[in-house]
Amino acid sequence: MSDTHKLAELIARHAPEDGSHSTAIPNLWVARCSQPSDAMFSLQEPAFCLIAQGRKRVMLGDLIYEYDSSSFLAASVDLPISGQVIDATPERPYLGMRLNLDIALLTEMVLELESRDAVLGEPVRGLCVSTINEELLSASVRLLQLLDKPADIPYLAPLAQREIYYRLLTGEQGGAVRSMARCEARLQQINRAIGWIKRHYNKPFSIEAVAAEARMSASTLHHHFKSVTAMSPLQYQKQLRLQEARRLMVSRAMDAASAAYEVGYESPSQFTREYGRLFGVPPARDVARLRAVQERDPSAA
């Protein structure tokens, strides 16, 4: 049996129903989906994502990434993305895993592998899709196999995760992942800016305040922020606002105007326009569709 089939079998066993499932291994999630899905908007944490069966499309700003069992996705910072399963059937469901990454550990390992004078550099896009190799796939299988041996998890899971980090950094397609970690100084500044925006997403936007938090000039922040996230700081805040408004309308039954004010919009009409541009339909239609989906499949909530 190939490692891809082993991975699919392990995920299918530990994700018996559609949805995303946490596991006994910290930071490890497995997912199943039996049919193509609508685009789901979320804030992607730093993570290594691998598909054993099916295909997925991820959108970051205007950029589109697609990957399947021959590739993997890695993210180095919190990014507002939309993800959509595009290849899945009940007979052959989408099966995937996600391992949230410790960027500090990843950077520490880069320092062990390279000279320290290579640490600083120009930040790269915070999301990449690369071809997977046999070593990385085998390391991922070994990590998931520990789910069948719970007593081994506290002792062997950290070693298995460290091997995945090592394979990410040393594989043929590891250049982009190394670049993510190698630019930690700049990424720390971008992460400080992201943190400010997340804390103040419902307040008036101030590029000067964000730049001060990042300890960069406004022009330098704008350049590096866009190179990492594929959007400007203001666009990033707008996506956070709209995603939170969507959550409030679905989970707390808020009307569009109330949700708009809650997340910082002063003009309901502007909110409706921007909501429609991001999600494709006006708020009321979108929320009605999402509630209908939840009634049919509570796990989609």
List key phrases describing it.
6-stranded antiparallel β-sheet; 20% strand; Arc Repressor Mutant, subunit A; Homeodomain-like_sf; 301 residues; single chain; HTH_AraC; AraC family transcriptional regulator
Describe it.
The two termini are 35 Å apart. The radius of gyration is 20 Å and the shape is globular. It has three domains: 3-182, Jelly Rolls, CATH 2.60.120; 184-235, Arc Repressor Mutant, subunit A (Orthogonal Bundle), CATH 1.10.10.60; 244-300, no CATH class. The longest helix has 19 residues, at 233-251. The protein is an alpha+beta fold. Mean pLDDT is 89; it is low at 116-120. It has helices at 3-14, 103-113, 134-145, 153-170, 175-182, 184-199, 207-214, 218-229, 233-251, 256-262, 268-279, 283-296; strands at residues 19-22, 28-33, 40-44, 47-53, 55-60, 63-68, 71-75, 79-87, 94-100, 127-131.
Describe the secondary-structure layout:
Blueprint: H1 3-14, E1 19-22, E2 28-33, E3 40-44, E4 47-53, E5 55-60, E6 63-68, E7 71-75, E8 79-87, E9 94-100, H2 103-113, E10 127-131, H3 134-145, H4 153-170, H5 175-182, H6 184-199, H7 207-214, H8 218-229, H9 233-251, H10 256-262, H11 268-279, H12 283-296
Antiparallel strand pairs: 1-2, 2-9, 3-8, 4-7, 4-9, 5-6, 5-8, 7-10
Helix pairs in contact: 1-3, 3-4, 6-7, 6-8, 6-9, 9-10
Protein name: AraC family transcriptional regulator
Organism: Stutzerimonas azotifigens
Keywords: Transcription, Transcription regulation
